[in-house]
Amino acid sequence: MAGLKTIIALSFVLAIGFLLVILSSALYANYYPLLVVATYILAPLPNAVCARCSSPDDFIDGSGNGVLDFGRFLTGFFVVMGIALPALLAHSGIIVVPAMVMSIIGGLLIYGTIISFTMFFQEESDF
């Protein structure tokens, strides 16, 4: 059971992640690293939607694995895109390397916080 300390710790880590991404944009006067925030916020959505759609009936467990795998694939795609996009922008010279590093670390903190939040506050159904 997660409590108030868990919520405070997760919000602190999330704030540090957003701070790093915003500073990677503001310090170098180039706002392309903010695209990382969109990819990490969109990353858990396909997994959640496909997990919900994979088994509409609670009594049948054998169907829907393809939908669940597709959701995991899209989630992995967004996570890799959140890492690869700043690297691509830095390689092409659009952003500088310190902005890339700050953006990747901040994005991973954001995504890690979202995953930790869903793990700590997941409802368990007993029947």
From TrEMBL:
Membrane topology: Multi-pass membrane protein
Major localization class: membrane
GO biological process: late endosome to vacuole transport via multivesicular body sorting pathway
Keyword Membrane annotated: yes
Alphabetized UniProt keyword annotations: Membrane, Transmembrane, Transmembrane helix
Ranges that cross the membrane: 7-25, 70-89, 95-121
Pfam families: Vps55 (PF04133)
Name of protein: (Perigord truffle) hypothetical protein
Lineage of origin: Eukaryota, Fungi, Dikarya, Ascomycota, Pezizomycotina
